[in-house]
Recover the amino acids of this structure.
């Protein structure tokens, strides 16, 4: 992925609202959130349980729609898209990395990475071309030698690397990482954050939810949520472990 130097706006929300229930049972999970994330930024979303950060990520990932307000993703208004349209956007514009990896246990690494291509009706690559793309994605995360291993034959850190390779296979405009180090030990967490730094330095836009301050410190910007609103939006040092920026 090439370095993006034009600082285009990848994410723009305007008065984004999400309401669950009604009357006395109404919960405003998001209460009018307006924010921008530009191409090439590495952003952490933080907040206590019930702050709205997970609801925001579901909407940013086109897994849910807002009750009110507008959401532009890569200059497309996805706020009112139907399920089929949202599925298309998810597959073409967003790379997901989850805490639990979400790999299919009976598929080896390369076949797990291939899944977004297989489920893309617009993909015209031959099977051989798809295999080559998946292998290249695994090479990019340092796992070409594990291409034919099952998830059960890999460590947690290796499984998360496979998940990152899968997230990159369609060259998304952004990567959404939801607690990507949550199930990992310290060494594996450091390895995954180094990988995310490498992707960011290569031009990737990354939005990451985390509850760990030391993980958030890796990013350029930290957005703190509370009660459905942005409480603090601060610039950060974007530090690798060992003091590298």
């Amino acid at each position: 992925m090439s370095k993006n130097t034009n600082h285009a706006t990848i994410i723009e929300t305007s008065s984004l609202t999400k309401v669950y229930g009604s009357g006395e049972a109404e919960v405003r999970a998001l209460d009018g959130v307006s924010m921008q994330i530009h191409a090439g930024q590495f952003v952490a979303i933080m907040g206590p349980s019930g702050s709205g950060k997970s609801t925001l990520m579901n909407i940013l990932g086109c897994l849910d729609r807002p009750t009110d307000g507008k959401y532009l993703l890569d200059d497309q208004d996805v706020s009112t898209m139907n399920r089929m349209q949202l599925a298309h956007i998810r597959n073409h514009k967003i790379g997901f990395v989850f805490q639990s990896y979400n790999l299919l246990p009976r598929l080896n690494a390369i076949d797990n990475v291939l899944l977004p291509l297989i489920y893309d009706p617009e993909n015209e690559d031959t099977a051989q071309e798809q295999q080559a793309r998946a292998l290249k994605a695994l090479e990019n995360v340092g796992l070409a030698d594990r291409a034919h291993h099952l998830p059960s034959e890999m460590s947690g850190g290796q499984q998360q690397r496979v998940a990152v390779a899968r997230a990159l296979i369609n060259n998304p405009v952004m990567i959404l990482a939801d607690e990507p180090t949550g199930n990992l030990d310290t060494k594996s967490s450091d390895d995954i954050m180094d990988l995310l730094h490498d992707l960011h330095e290569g031009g990737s836009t990354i939005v990451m939810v985390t509850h760990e301050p030391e993980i958030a410190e890796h990013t350029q910007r930290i957005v703190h949520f509370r009660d459905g609103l942005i409480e603090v939006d601060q610039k950060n040092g974007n530090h690798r472990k060992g003091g590298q920026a």
